[in-house]
Amino acid sequence: MKMHSILSTVLVIILAFSVAEANNLDGKTQQMVNGICKKTTDIRFCSSVLVKNLATPAPSNKDLMNVTVREAERFSANTNFFISTLLENAGDERQDLQMCADAYSIVNLAFTNAMSFFNQAHYSKIVKVQNKISKAVGICKTDFNVPGYEINPLIERKRQTMILSAMEQIVCQMVSS
Ligand SMILES: *[C@@H]1O[C@H](CO)[C@@H](O)[C@H](O)[C@H]1NC(C)=O
């Protein structure tokens, strides 16, 4: 009985938070987010990146761009670090992992450049960076096993990287038009 009421309380709190989060965005913002995300291959992932990180309730296109370039850079830096931790204990897969480390050095540099282009308002240069990113992502082959993982975790990392890259391109076109 006691456990039951604790569980119900926790559930109510979780529900309250999700409703609060859903209400955080006004209709217009929700529409902007949907407009961007339905052009990507994963509406859910795209929306969660934007919604989680929007600081203002009524963001401009520039605010959306800001969130996108910063999150893309953060994600690629994090992936870089993640690969370096895998490399520390790597066995047979070392060479494949090294290729991915090399790939993500390029990807991360490209996303870092995109962020400085955004700060300098050189939006057309951000679009050009996306080609470099998709080429570099392709250097990281994922047809190898990573010990401790049932599925190579870099498959999902690559997928999300490409969505973030697509988001940059989409939002950038909105900002510059
Ligand atoms: C981008 O967002 C950060 C953090 O919210 C803010 O400090 C910065 O001024 C923003 N940059 C631009 C150009 O809007």
TrEMBL record:
Gene3D superfamilies to which the protein is assigned, alphabetical: Invertase/pectin methylesterase inhibitor family protein
Alphabetically sorted, this entry's keywords are: Disulfide bond, Signal
**Signal peptide per UniProt:** 1-22
* Keyword Nucleotidyltransferase among UniProt keywords: no
> Which part of the chain is the Pectinesterase inhibitor domain?
28-171
From which domain of life does this come? Eukaryota
A Pfam family it matches: PMEI
NCBIfam families attached here? PME_inhib
Identify its protein family.
Answer: Belongs to the PMEI family.
Name assigned to this protein: Uncharacterized protein LOC104767644
Task: List the source organism.
Answer: Camelina sativa (False flax)
Q: What is the lineage of its organism?
A: Eukaryota, Viridiplantae, Streptophyta, Embryophyta, Tracheophyta
Q: Which gene encodes it?
A: LOC104767644
